[in-house]
Structure formats: C-alpha cells, structure tokens
Write a structure and sequence with these properties.
With about 375 residues, the protein is mainly beta. Helices cover about 15% and strands about 40% of the residues. A hairpin with a 4-residue loop joins strand 1 and strand 2.
Length: about 375
C-alpha cells in the first residue's frame, strides 16, 4: 500500500507491528501511515499543513483538490469493498454568486444536491426523482423553477451544480435547454429583476408549446418549430387536406396531432387498411386528386400505377421509447398494404428486391 505496506518503504526494510510511519518528500509532501498488526490501516498525504488525501481502509477515503473540491468516499459496511456513498463539497459560483455545492452519490447515482451561498442562503435542494426543484438568488428572489415527472439529476463525478452539468443539464448560459424527464418537464428561468429569461416544456422528449429563449418567444408543436399564427390557429380552422399535402414528415405529424387523426380521416375520406396494435402502428389510405405523385419515385407495375396516382397512403408509427406518433407517407402499392410491409419499405427505400431489416432491440 503506497510503497510502505507492512512498514516497508524506500530502499531499506523497516518492520513494525504497531505504530506510525512518516515520510517527507523533497517536493514538500508529507505522508503518514498508521500500522496495526503489521497492516497499514490509515494513510494521510499532506501538502504544507493541509491534507490532500486521507484513506482509512474499510471506512472512507477523503480528498482535497486545488483547494476548491473536497471529496469523501465511504465504503460499504466497513468492508472496504464497494462504494456506499460519495460526498463532494465544491467551492463554486452559481450565476456569478460564490457558494458551496454539496453533492451526494449512492452507488454511483446522484441522490441529492444542495447549493449554499456565502451568506448561507440555500440556493436549491434537488433530489433524484423529485417532481420539482426551485432555485433562488442570494437575496431569495426566484432564479428558476423546474417541474416534471420524476426529474433525473444525472450528475458527473465533479460535483458541479446540475444546471451546469456537462451530461444532463437544465440550461446553459446561452439559453439552450436540456430535458431532465423522459415524459414531462417544464422550465422557468428568471433574471435578477424577476423577468422570465428562458422557459419551455418537454413532452416525450419533444419541445411543446410556447418557449422563451433569451427573452424571445418561440413556438413548438410536437417538437416542430412553427410560427405564432399556426400555433394559435384553432384545430378546426386548419384544412385537413393541407395536412395530407405537407411533404415534411415531422410537420405532417405535428399537424395531424394538432387537429386530430380522426378528423382528417372523416374529412378526407380516409380508410384504415391495416393495423398493428402490438406496435401501435396503423396504415391509412386517402383518395386524392392526381397530383403530388409518388409513383414515379418507386418501381411499380402497370396495375399499381393508376391507384397510386389517385391515392395517398399514410403509415402511423409509434416510437417504442417515447410513445410519440409519427406519420410517414408511403407509396399506395399492393405490396405495401400491411403495416410491417410499409414500415420495412421506409428502411429499404421501397426497393422490391431489398431484404427485410431486423433489429435486436428497437428504441
């Protein structure tokens, strides 16, 4: 252990059953080791008058780094095996205000985090799987409010405030937002005057509703950015035929979700021709005027040609992870009359000779 296990260090051999060993180095470090029954049970490393590492085998390991970070790693059940809990105390600034960030990990997971300003005001207390965390400035004015379903404060090993975390952080100084919940999460970030500087909501990992980025408003429908007019247009005022003509798959999905697939089917005389309830997929067929042709993009026989010219086929697929729905346009050909056939076509480019695509795991 550290070159002096059982009291052995440097070139010579020194043996002690019980006692203390002190080693001083030329570069200003001092190492002390405690020996009990010929075993090193404790070791401290000093730089000047302050320890920078302190190990007590079977109990804990403490470390200071650059004078700003203080880590305490505790072992499980005094066995010295496995991490039971890691506490990091780090001197930092939160939005320009000095304080201390306390972070506690349990078996590798960030369990809770607390930031305390120099004036002892608690900026925030965030706990894994809580549904809300509020932050405030040193004068107790609100800094942020984050709500969601089982917020996940995934932390890095450096003990930084979660809003600056390089892995999963709520927002950055440039106003960019990151999700803390796979289902629903809403952010509101205030400036020092109490005005909303950044805000937004996620649903199923997609931006939804009105967003504010550095005081400027933006609008999202199912993750697709839209203008204010379209965002505020009532669903019954949107032409369903306009939805079917939308060439962009994301925008089409957004419009279908806004006005409702049922209404599009009713107004555009759509027909459900196949359904895969297990996967949440469905295939719909719509009569259209002979425009917006797809048949010239795919290999087809003469029998299919006329039908594809006058029909539009939409495949509704459901993401296995987010459960979000997407609506993909597929050629109205006989060989794509089943959900799985049409889904396979989206992978293979609708080439008739292409082999089926299989996945070990779909996410």
């Amino acid at each position: 252990m550290g070159g002096y296990y059982y009291g052995r260090f440097n070139a010579g051999d020194t043996y002690i059953d019980n006692g203390k060993i002190t080693v001083k180095t030329n570069d200003g470090f001092k190492i002390t080791a405690k020996v009990v029954n010929k075993q090193v049970v404790e070791r401290k490393t000093f730089q000047g008058n302050r320890f920078i590492q302190w190990i007590k085998w079977g109990e804990f390991q403490k470390e200071r780094k650059n004078g700003t970070t203080y880590k305490v790693l505790r072992f499980r059940n005094r066995t010295g095996k496995g991490k039971d809990g890691l506490t990091i105390r780090r001197d930092m600034e939160l939005e320009g205000h000095k304080g201390i960030c306390y972070t506690f990990f349990c078996r590798g997971r960030l369990l809770w985090q607390k930031f305390v300003y120099a004036n002892r005001v608690v900026a925030y207390y965030a706990r894994h799987n809580h549904d809300q965390v509020k932050g405030r400035y040193p004068d107790r004015k609100p800094m942020f409010n984050i709500t969601g379903e089982k917020l996940n404060f995934k932390g890095n090993a450096e003990g930084e405030p979660f809003i600056y975390n390089r892995l999963h952080f709520a927002y950055r100084s440039d106003g960019e937002f990151f999700n803390l919940s796979a289902t629903k999460c809403t952010y509101t970030i205030f400036d020092r005057q109490g005005k909303v500087k950044n805000a937004g909501s996620f649903e199923n990992n997609q931006r939804v509703g009105e967003w504010i980025k550095t005081y400027v408003k933006y609008y999202f429908l199912s993750g697709v950015p839209v203008n204010k007019k379209l965002f505020e247009t009532p669903p019954d005022k949107i032409d369903p035929h306009r939805v079917l003509r939308e060439p962009n798959a994301q925008a089409r999905a957004m419009l279908l979700k806004k006005i409702g697939l049922k209404r599009v089917i009713e107004k555009c005389e759509g027909v459900l021709i196949d359904e895969d309830k297990e996967r949440g997929n469905a295939l719909y067929d719509f009569p259209i005027k002979p425009v917006n042709r797809m048949s010239n993009l795919f290999n087809r026989d003469d029998e299919d040609w006329q039908y594809d010219e006058t029909h539009l086929r939409i495949l509704k697929v459901t993401c296995t992870t987010t459960k979000g729905e997407y609506f993909l346009r597929v050629p109205a050909l006989k060989r794509y009359s089943k959900c799985e056939e049409a889904r396979q076509g989206t992978f293979k480019g609708f080439e008739p000779e292409a082999k089926p695509v299989t996945f070990k795991l779909e996410t």
